[in-house]
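Work Package 3 (structural annotation) set out to generate three-dimensional models for the target panel prioritized at the project kickoff. During this period the team completed the workflow that converts sequence records into discrete structure tokens, so that structures can be stored uniformly alongside our sequence database. As a representative example, we reproduce one entry of 509 residues exactly as it appears in the project archive.
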Amino acid sequence: MLKKRLSKADYILVLISLVMLLIFIELYPQVFPDAGLRLKINQEQITGRAEKLLHDLGYDTDKFYFAPELLRDTNLSQHLQQRYGLGKTNNIVRDNQLPVFYWRVKLKDIESDDRKLKISFGSEDEAKSYIDKMLSDTITVNLSTGGDVIGLNVRLGEDSAIDTLSYDHSLQLATDFFHKHITDTSAFRFSPKNDNHNTVKSIYGFRWERADSIYGNEQSVNIEVSGDKITKFKINFEPEKKPKKSKNLESIPTVILMVCVIIFMLILLIQKLRKDRIELKSNIAISVAVALSWVILMIINITRDSGDSNFLLVLILPIVITTPFILFSFIVSNSLGESEAREIWPDKLVTMDALRSGIVLFPKLSISLIRGFSLAFIVAGTVAVLLKAADLNFNFFIVTENDRLYAKLSYVPLLFVAASGILNVCFGEYVFRLFFLSYFRKKIGSTQIIILLAVLLWIFVFGSYLNLKLSSYGLTLAINFVLGLLIVFFFLKGDFLTVLWGGFAYYLL
């Protein structure tokens, strides 16, 4: 029965989508920054190397627990992308020639959780006292993805016993550490940086500078010795010419447009409620799913940022405050979009209604899913092709990289991707695509104008679930315009479930 319902155009579409999927797979290592990431050792090994380093330096870590986190050097990444392009940057990162991605291992006081709670709920004097205690001992170790030490920062409280050494002895300690952790020491020259700035304990700073640059980056090494221990070590990479910072892509026209959209939707909602032409109850299930996705993302973000899951107890208030707002706003916008669509083209909601009623095995659902996969593959391939073409002709860097990185590094990557997909895709499709296409269709007769208005609105929110932002504002709009045409086309030729599932499938890629 499915075969009878598929048209010749659908078969052609599936064939094109498979070709675009192959193109996406081929171009992925060349145009997506996270493709250069190669984790040669895992978090446990990174923690072990950080612990061994500190023990070798004579630090007692018994009262600390280790919290590793993978980070990206934004300035270094953007400089390389703008100067050498996306493909070569990925090769540099993949070969670990520069620490674009690196591990930061923070050592946190085991008693810090109790202190955080006391800071949150105690008096101002108590908070100050506990903050002083929390800051008295802090240790951070940075390591490359290959496990090499690239940074160390130790801050000890005044009550810690530290011997005082002479300048010559401190220089010897720093030099030995430099030769142990720097591979090509002959490329550096010593640049004295004596800094004895504490009357209680002697602190000496030393610096080595590299004569030649590495991919347009001036390299230097700073080492600080306090008493008989290395307290700071940092390998610095400074671009000879810093990349131009991207403009704030959430520009004034975008903000004005979004405010106008919100006001317009509220007015229309009030009108429909007065005429009893809108049903809120039928959309509670999907709205609850969106709200739960929001909660999951907030928990993942808080856990990642704090490096300590117990810290959720302190930051649970933002979740409690924002989640009801997300739930209510989506119920309203979702219901408003469906109300408009039912007045104009109810056939585009047939598959959604069937799923709500518990009917799963019917041909139209299968066709919608096939078209949705086709949309996802075509969009993925188109994104890769457009980025590759832009990379060959323009100097730019990608602004939005972190979501892809977080998806790879989450404890449950699929959970992060699924929650992010549900949240972004549902908001984008229900609020912008379903509502505005339906509203434009009711008010305007010309299909071409409908498509143009829908795409223009879509690119000003930067592609909704695609969230593709480049340092060039014009390039961002141009690429999203092409993608917007694709998705609006699939909506007009198919049904609502096609673009909804297509967006989610794209997220899974």
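The chain is about 60% helix and 15% strand.
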